[in-house]
């Protein structure tokens, strides 16, 4: 028997994949995504791994989204304030703690939060920017040539083109 193809099932999988991706890139927790979409954690991991095979690295994109400097500065200020408050509370119970200890913990925090593969991340950022520049240049050329079909295609398929570029790089 030939395997039947259900176009609605495929469409639903595409919608589910996009919803998982969107929530994941927003930094939502696995529990939140599971409850919201009624899926399991393994489903999230399956879609994430499949996307990575196609060149869509959600973890890198999540890291890029989280590197918003204003949010980072606010998080750092909050953390350091919290660390100092906690340190002051500990000083009341353990007078032998020193500012040297506080400095050591603060330094450790900043070492832990540094991205590990900054060269690889910068390379991926550069590849993404280059691919977007090429898409934009082709779209502008198509507009000058009054070729709306090409512009519409590039607009609709930009994500797929970017994924293909990253997949070809692997």
Automatic annotation (TrEMBL):
InterPro entries: Phage_D3112_Orf24, Sig_transdc_resp-reg_C-effctor
Pfam family, one: DUF1804
Domain of life: Bacteria
SUPFAM superfamilies tied to this protein: C-terminal effector domain of the bipartite response regulators
GO molecular function, one term: DNA binding
GO BP, sorted A to Z: regulation of DNA-templated transcription
Protein name: Uncharacterized protein
